Amino acid sequence: MRTFAAIDVGSYELTMKIYEISARGRMKEIDCIRHSIELGTDTYNTGKISLQRVDELCEVLREFRTIMETYQVDAYQAYGTSAIRETENNMIVLDLIKNRTGITVEVISNSEQRFLDYKSLATKAEEFRQIIKQSTAILNIGGGSIQLSLFDKDTLITTQNMRLGVLRLRDRLRTLQSRTNHYAELIAEIANPQLVLFKKMYLKNREIKNLILMDDYVSYLMQNEAITHETPGYLSGEEFLRIVGSLKEIPLSDFMKSMNISVEKADLFYHSAVLIKNMIEVMDAETLWAPGVCLCDGIAYEYAQKEKLLKPQHDFDKDILACAADMGRRYMCSNKRSDVLENISLSIFDAMKRVHGMSKRERLLLQLAAKLNDCGKYISLMNVGECSYNIIMSTEIIGLSHLEREMVANIVKYNRIPITYDADAGGGPMLDQESFLKVAKLTAILRLATGLDRSHRQKFRNIKAVLKDDELIITVDTADDITLEKGLIGKKAGFFEEVFSVKTVIKQKRRF
Predict the structure, then answer these.
(1) Residue 237 in contact with residue 285, Cβ under 8 Å?
(2) Model confidence over 395-414: pLDDT tens digits?
(3) Which residues pair with 9 in a beta bridge?
């Protein structure tokens, strides 16, 4: 049995949950502590977190540390989200927190944050599996932004971030509060154009049957049996619209008291409810499910997964690859070409495991690079590498950190142009030495794979790569003429040999 603490330094609330995780993979929440602190109000309005709020933040985290000591936690993980991520002085804030409290807070990218939110659904595995069998959207409402993710037939199709978070919306509209009572209409005017554009670009002919809600206010309401009756957490879209409509007829404070929700949270609750209402209306969702999970649940799930304390209930890597495949389709990459490059690249990667020393995670980055290798052709056939880099860096890939996305973008870029050993000329934030070496190794593998499909005709039925001494022997199964591939592979193989000190030998197994 292990005791684990998950800490979420959010935009408007600090949350710590304590879990007991058994060797059999059971995860039990034993305590939850919340403290309201609007870090996002400072960040979104001034770009910096004020000294007063930093003092309050450190004081609360010291209390969290005392509670962790009381529970004798074996490990903890603290993450900062958009309020910390977007503040200009986050390095100073993080250093102050560590020195004053002894707690190390790591800042995660939006895609990492939403992926952890998404992983929290794995704690409701059976319900989650059932609901995503039909077309389903996940609406994740935060203080700074919302995340919309689309599932179809158990596969994650796409995910997009929009700056429509409840704290950001409230602060934008606060100046108008004294001049109008039509708050809901103003929220709709801001939110609906983006929601409609998402529907037009990504839904196409799909109909959304289910909407999974993840937020800190309405989700709590939907656990109330007085609202959901027989099945807590579930409401029809029609019933939810009726409830939101009824808020015009009674004071919001009275409604909050009747539902046992803090009146102090009334404005953020209302903004969240109106956003959900707009989402249901735009998407015509039939069923709303609020599983009642949060980022802390995802943090604990990831910890248990890494420590091999539980067996994954869902293939999350498959979702990352599905998002990349959707991105490839958007930029008209050839599915057949991508599949061949992926197959060849992975065969080489697996054969070279003893030499390259990389892990399963780098294997995933190579797969992503193979899927997105040709995306830059959508913009230019002359500058494919640079255009691909810019497309990848401008597009969020759920589950990847910013550094990992930078690595994928550089692998794809350097597959087309000579690799730059001067990090300052890399076209983006400087990669650390370890990451740069991984980029060089994965680029060498992708270049070799690209050389084996130089004609873009997918000539090989099967490919087998075997490492013998200082030679990588690649046997291709084809009846086609591969003179072009053998003749032009030299330059690609040259870089491969430079990186790994391994020669490449191509052998053909003919079919008649």
Answers:
(1) yes
(2) 888 888 889 999 999 999 99
(3) 14, 80
